[in-house]
Amino acid sequence: MKVVVIGSGLMGNGISLACAQADYNVTNIDTFPSAIEKAKTTTAKLYDKKVAKGKMTREQADAVIARITYADTYAAAADADLVIEAVPEKIEIKKAVFAELAKVCKKEAILVSNTSGLSISEIASVTDRPNQVMGVHFFYPAPVMKLVELIRGLATDDATYNTVKEFAKSIHKETVDAPELPGFIVNRILVPMQNEAAFMVMEGADPKDVDTAMKLGANMPMGPLELTDFVGIDTMLATMTGLYNGFHDSKYRPCPLLETMVKAGHLGRKSGQGFYKYDK
Q1: Which residues in the chain come in under a pLDDT of 50?
Q2: Please, which residues have CB within 8 angstroms of residue 116's CB and are 6 or more apart in sequence?
Q3: Exposed/middle/buried for 193, CB within 10 Å: 0-12, 13-18, 19+?
Q4: pLDDT of residue 89
Q5: If you compute the radius of gyration of the chain from its CA atoms, what whole number of angstroms results?
Q6: 123 and 91 in contact (C-beta within 8 Å)?
Q7: Is 8 annotated in the active site?
Q8: Is 116 a catalytic residue?
Q9: Known catalytic membership, residue 248
Q10: Which has the closest alpha carbon to 251: 210, 189, 192?
């Protein structure tokens, strides 16, 4: 199976690595050459660390890296059997990507979106093959996290679903079927909890106290605010906003503190400042 991943950001790069680690040859496409170079650098550093820690040999690391090729044009997806989109979580961007893929990919190609909560049916509507479009929501970091959520659009057929499910298993992922509703399963439950934790900070609680309480009281490995910093405050806010807009329910109202932090550039670990400070 020829696999193509669209987007060289954290998720796109991670999904490419998950495929390469499972012995797939994968092409990672990004129209921004700088994103490709950053992905290459990030990958090299990651595997240098794995080798240094004795988690794999240099030969094994080089073999994984060699299974990933890069391109800056969608034409590289022309012969793909499976295309995984991992571009920013904005419906307009994703629809533009899928419309382009529908033009260049062979008719048999399956197109999937790594959306964390957007409508698969809407994304599929801009293609010539809505029956061959579905969602596969990976979790960060993609090479490590075992779960993927499978989401069928209104038109997704059984053949597409079965092929994608078998592919997910082949890259050593556990799958769950999620409804085509905002947030799917995990984010619909998890992100409102993170949002509520942000409300508590806005109301005067210390972030460390909130996280300690949830780690010790609910046996969470990472507190909700630590997790928000880890995934990115902007990412978490976008997901919460998607829930709010999707359900039109006030219980999903994003915490104003999150909006202020994003405007200030306090995005969590990736910016060096979020609910905690980090060494960049």
Answers
A1: none
A2: 89, 137, 183, 184, 187, 239, 242
A3: middle
A4: 87
A5: 19
A6: yes
A7: no
A8: yes
A9: no
A10: 192
